[in-house]
Write a structure and sequence with these properties.
about 575 residues; alpha+beta; FAD/NAD(P)-binding domain; 16 helices; 26 strands; about 25% helix
């Protein structure tokens, strides 16, 4: 049977994404610490470093005119950020001990929650009491796009230089040590030719480099094999989340999660995931809800579409009642690292550390990763500061500190929680519950993860269930991309690497999988045999799902992609 892994993308990470500095020394950009990624991990690292440097003018002077630089490919911090999101406030309180919830952006503390098992398109059963992983009392509903714009402002106030609209194209390595990154070129045409506004990239040389690229970082993906950072040999695996924000007539008073329908429980389909509906209520604003669906990307059906599953889900009476009379105001999509403990790489190499989602620091059963990202950024900053003060580039203690913190202990307890669902929802749920009760001790051992792209493809008529877009409750992919503010120019180079001549079943899988309509099967393509796929790469919202399913996402030109506001 066909699997995506049989058609690897035309990419050579060692040649393309890792190399020595090439600019003459007098043309290089010298910074103290280069942080790749303006999400919560990278910005927290920048903020904590500058907090420490505030009382250390000697080290600050040694780090030069730009002690901390954040390289962010989006138009602003938060432009490419999307999550549910419910945040455990512990890490942001550590980072800002003098600030409270009234100071950082949120939509209120959670006091009520409900979990439903969806039997079918009409019926839902509440799970009482609330299963432990879904208990969120004391946590806060947030928009990560909004939070990261706030963190970006805090980082700039502290003295960070945020290089927005700048992609990090290559990891610079000299004599076995990471010495910075090279920024991407700007102003190239579709064939890579130099346009009239062409600007070449630059070597950004740093005493320490932080990879905080998020869920799929191409530099992290290249660094792991180059520096042999895999600790177990288990690959990272992903889920895809598609999200909408709605203005609604009546404020929601609880967080809601669901399992079951519209996904199929039979093991042969390997469909696992669920939904969230979170209140986004703020005084003086019209009430909103965050609603989304997450599907593990090891599924087998070529015609499974997370975007269309969400549209189907919204028509369930339980959900439709919440949205009734409202309007959709935002949409987005993002892949989520779900490999957990066994897929985590070693979080350092000479001259470099990895933070947040780039390192797979996500607790899948508890649906949490934001506070781990903030915590890992803070811990990275503290280790970098300590070592640079001693004149060292050995940041190996950072990995041990992360593993000794609640990040490592939490992920170890849930180390085998996701893998059992390959046996189907019922059997997987029973095993996962046993692991929750025993904090991972039973069943113990090492349950291996396997690449999403290795799963053989099934072809069914799954697509017949998807509702037709009505522009009121259900929407197509292209109108959804439009409201992201996607700013990719039409004549930009293609940043997506796939084999474009592939079997029909793989072409269907990519076309249905992509929430942004990037992959298109020509109307005259044969029903069986090889398809010459069309790649509408300017639609791409940088979700990263293609990397899980056999292709490779690389950075677009800086500033391209979505401009999320409240996702």
């Amino acid at each position: 049977m066909t699997s995506p892994a049989q058609f690897p993308p035309p990419v050579d990470p060692e040649q393309e994404f890792i190399g020595a500095p090439t600019d003459p020394e007098d043309e290089r950009i010298e910074v103290g610490v280069a942080i790749v990624g303006g999400g919560q991990a990278g910005l927290s690292c920048a903020i904590r470093l500058l907090q420490l440097l505030e009382d250390d003018p000697e080290l600050t002077e040694k780090l030069g005119e730009v002690p901390v630089a954040v390289i962010e490919k989006g138009r602003v911090p938060g432009a490419h950020q999307l999550s549910g999101a419910v945040m455990n406030p512990s890490s942001i309180r550590e980072l800002f001990p003098d600030l409270g919830p009234g100071d950082w952006p949120n939509f209120g503390e959670i006091s009520k929650e409900r979990v439903y098992f969806m039997l079918n398109s009409k019926r839902a059963i509440p799970l009482v009491p609330t299963p432990p992983p879904f208990r969120n009392h004391g946590n806060y509903v947030i928009s990560v796009a909004e939070l990261n714009r706030w963190l970006g402002a805090k980082a700039e106030e502290a003295g960070a230089y945020i290089l927005a609209e700048t992609s990090a194209a290559k990891l610079l390595v000299d004599d076995g040590r990471v010495v910075g990154v090279r920024s991407g070129d700007k102003g190239r045409g579709k064939q890579g030719e130099e346009l009239g506004n062409f600007e070449p990239g630059s070597d950004v040389i740093a005493k320490a480099t932080v990879l905080a690229e998020g869920t799929w970082g191409h530099l992290t993906g290249a660094a792991i094999p180059h520096f042999d950072l895999s600790t177990t040999g288990d690959p990272q695996v992903w889920a895809l989340g598609v999200k909408e924000v709605w203005e609604v007539e009546e404020p929601l008073d609880k967080v809601i999660h669901t399992l079951g329908w519209p996904l199929r429980p039979q093991a042969k389909y390997k469909e696992f995931g669920g939904s969230w509906i979170y209140p986004m209520n703020r005084e003086g604003e019209k009430p909103k809800v965050s609603i989304g669906y997450v599907v593990r990307l090891n599924y087998r059906d070529a015609k499974l579409s997370t975007h269309d599953v969400l549209q189907e889900f919204k028509l369930h009476p339980l959900v439709k009642k919440i949205l009734e009379g409202g309007k959709r105001v935002a949409w987005g999509a993002k892949a989520i690292p779900e490999g957990g403990y066994w897929a985590m790489p070693r979080l350092y190499a000479p001259g470099m550390v990895i933070c947040g989602d780039a390192g797979g620091l996500v607790n899948v059963p508890k649906l949490k990763g934001v506070h781990y990202a903030i915590k890992s950024g803070k811990l990275a900053a503290e280790e970098i500061y300590k070592q640079l003060k001693m004149g060292s580039h050995d940041f190996s203690a950072y990995h041990d500190t992360v593993m000794a913190s609640e990040i490592g202990t939490d992920l170890y307890e849930t180390r085998n929680m996701e893998q059992p669902f390959a046996r189907g929802l019922i059997v997987g749920g029973a095993i996962a519950n046993a692991m929750v009760i025993t904090k991972g001790r039973f069943p113990g051992g090492h349950w291996k993860t396997h690449r999403d792209a290795d799963e053989p493809i099934l072809r069914t008529n799954r697509d017949r269930r998807y509702p037709k877009p009505d522009g009121k409750y259900t929407f197509d992919k292209l109108s959804s991309v439009f409201i992201t503010g996607n700013s990719t120019r039409d004549d930009a180079p293609n940043h997506i690497r796939i084999q474009e001549k592939v079997p029909r079943e793989l072409a269907e899988m990519w076309a249905y999988m992509c929430p942004a309509g990037v992959y298109e099967i020509p109307d005259d393509a044969p029903e069986n045999g090889t398809v010459d796929l069309i790649v509408n790469y300017t639609n791409c919202v940088q979700c990263g799902a293609i990397t899980a399913k056999g292709g490779r996402l690389t950075p677009p030109e800086g500033g391209d992609g979505p401009v999320y506001q409240i996702t």
